[in-house]
Amino acid sequence: MVRRAIFSAIVVLVVVILTFTLIRLAPGDPAELLAGEAASPEYVAAVREVYGLDRPIYEQLAIYISGIIRGDLGFSISFSRPVLDVILERLPQTILLVGSAIAIALILGIFLGILSARKAFKVQDTLITGITLTLYSTPVFWLGMMLILIFSLWIPVFPTGGYFDVGVEKNLTDFVLNVAWHLVLPACTLSAFFLALYTRLTRAGLLDALSSNYIVGARSKGVPERAILYRHALKNALLPIITVAAIQIGLMVGGVVLTEGVFSWPGVGQLLIQAVGYRDYILVTGIFLLTAVSVSIANFAADIVYAIIDPRIRTG
């Protein structure tokens, strides 16, 4: 665990260095955006000096890393506020969206995977396979727009976007219910791809486990089929799902950007789009730093869950 923690810290550092450097190689000058089109070259140079953009990249990087060590992620030039404050303001909305999507994908994906494996090569399995492969190959933004078209315009059940309706925040119960109402379509959109992936992984893992020698031995001893499926085979089938789920937390950032854009969800994905548009280097780097830390924590947690589920890892 100590080795994994050190490795995670190195990964985060590498992500920060690459992100910080590559963003500054992209075309565009944030000082010109801040100063405005009619600004004189002297004023643009003054803005660049105020925000430290006139210094060499290596010097800016050294200052930024020293700030991270002190817990300072820098100052956003587009929001004129500390980067950490800007991110923390949007982070709860993204955690709610991502957490809901992962919960839906895991619960429903494992359930459909078990059903598909139990009815392997039958009608149910073929139907589930067809649906999951369709969801797997469907672009997130297109699915989001189709859900809005069907369930917001044709059948007006859910709102077209936003986080909550104005005025409901005065009552806590109304606020929670209203947020949940707005959350349904974005969470379903974001979870669709991962639902298909977890379903296929569960099915493949169960089919592989059910053909193992220890399962044959359990059947020969008269162990009930339900116990074989849930107490023995499913544990081994869950191991690759844990790994993939930990990795997908980082990849989900791309889906969050698209989903939040389609549904006007005020989270980190929308913030990233704004930061890129304003060439807000420090804010973009802070968001990617958050992503790297999230992936590292998720993988670290996956190692711990691995040891809990598989005793061989604890004794190895």
Q: Which features characterize this protein?
A:
316 residues, mainly alpha, MetI-like fold, 2 domains, two-stranded antiparallel ribbon, 2 strands, globular
Short structural description:
By secondary structure, the protein is mainly α. Helices cover 78% and strands 1% of the residues. It has two domains: 2-83, no CATH class; 87-315, MetI-like (MetI-like fold).
Task: Please tell me about this protein's structure.
By secondary structure, the chain is mainly alpha-helical. It has 2 domains: 2-83, no CATH class; 87-315, Orthogonal Bundle (MetI-like fold). Helix content is 78%, strand content 1%. The protein contains 13 helices and 2 strands, in the order ααααββααααααααα. The protein has helices at 2-25, 30-35, 41-50, 57-69, 83-118, 123-136, 140-154, 172-210, 213-220, 225-263, 268-277, 281-309, 311-315, and strands at residues 75-76, 81-82. A hairpin with a 4-residue loop joins strand 1 and strand 2. Helix 5 packs antiparallel against helix 6. The protein is globular and about 85 Å long. The model has no long low-confidence stretch (mean pLDDT 85).
**CA-based shape:** globular
* Structure classification: mainly alpha
> CATH class of the largest domain, please?
Mainly Alpha
Report the end-to-end length measured between terminal Cα atoms: 14 Å
Q: Biggest sheet: strands side by side, in what order?
A: 1-2
The H/E string reads HHHHEEHHHHHHHHH
Strand content: under 5%
- Supply the number of structural domains: 2
Number of helices: 13
- Strands, count: 2
Under CATH, the topology of the largest domain can be stated as MetI-like fold
Tell me the CATH superfamily of the largest domain: MetI-like
Kindly report the average pLDDT value.
85
Helix content: over 70%
**Taking Cα atoms only, what radius of gyration do you get, to the nearest Å?**
24 Å
Q: Architecture of the largest domain, CATH level 2?
A: Orthogonal Bundle
Stretches with pLDDT under 50, minimum 5 residues: none
Largest sheet: 2 strands, antiparallel
